[in-house]
Amino acid sequence: MLETPQAAHAAEYIQDDLAHLMHPLYHPTDHQHPRIWVKGEGALLTDMEGYTFIDGLSGLWNVHIGHGRRELAEAAMHQMSTLAYASAYTGSTNLRTIELANRLSQLTYPSINTFFFTSGGAESTESSFKTARYYWKLRGKPDKVKFISRIHGYHGVTMAAGSATGIAGYWAMFEPRVPHFSHIESPYPYRFTGGDEHTSPGVAAANLLEAAILHEGADTVAGFIAEPIQGAGGVIVPQPDYFTRIREICDQYDVLLIADEVITGFGRTGRWFGLEHFGIEPDIMQFAKGITSGYVPLGGIGVSDTIRETLYNTPASSKYMHAYTYSGHPTTCAVALANLDVITQEGLVERAAEVGAYLQQQLQSLYEIEHVGDVRGIGMIAGVEIVANRETKAQFAPASGFTKHLARELLERGLFTRIVRDIICIAPPLVTTHAQIDQIVAIIRAAVPAAVAATHA
Q: Which residues on neighbouring strands pair with residue 3, listed in sequence order?
């Protein structure tokens, strides 16, 4: 435990927080004793009371290069001292935004070389949807306005993005959702039951997209949006043949494949982008989080050369009327460039593959624990699914309080992360050491039985 100068005022800060702040996913009963974070270094976070925790989720899946990197702070300071902000609306541009778009064209999928910048993931989702609709209108197919996504998929919680998000808990208090959005079942290998002697589970799960397109009418479906690995929905890694079939279906029915790389982008999986693992390219990719390691807000979309040519060859009277004040913000782009320099120079993508393999291997040992139902992941992202009964895969009843017990047991042992449907989500910074990974696994090994015991007490 480290002494912090603010520790004596913790109670006062919490009261001010309760009096004046609304937080994401908020209810005050869940926020009576929040951690007040005051310092981050590498893979560690320190709270106001001086306790240090492993940041098991890289903030919110985004602090790839770790906390406390001065290179990014210095890049922001230098850019703010010269040109903190300038509009990037048509007729204006700036050096950092040009440089970042050029850099991304060298890193992303070969067919994606043109980029539009946003402030984060949800704005990127909205931009993907609007761009897809715009594209189809220019192609003479104005009825292609619908989007299909997946149960357990997460794409943000603004109105259209939230309608695509396949997690019902985000819907209830904001209904009705935006029309023309539908969902298919996730490939979820641990729980998906499709497939037979003729069709693999991955292909069977992908074929649900074809059925949905035919149900909606292929001439009305603009796009299918999917995370290469479903993150906030429980770290769901699809079957190896799933996306190959998805790409075939999208091509067959003229449906744009939108890859949500907000979590999987910029090295998290041991590749620069998640779909690289499956050997296909999307038509639109969206990104955020890891592009700046969370140091400043930035996101965007990249569009295929085919989409770019369609958009650029339309008459000026039909131009792309989509915009954000902070699109192409020079300071955020400068920070992104510095972040990409760190990732490249320190070989963090390759490190995520190497250390990620160690993470996955060590997590497999958790199967020794009675209530560990599934361990899955790739690179530096993993999920450990805890079940009440391993044979039936039955989950703990929400009323049992198991989830809260598990969160408390992890936190008391020094691991700060998220739990989704009793799935412990693990995505530490790409700079996390082997020793810290050992510590993560040891904490989970001790916390799960303790949580089960507390639930049955």
A: none
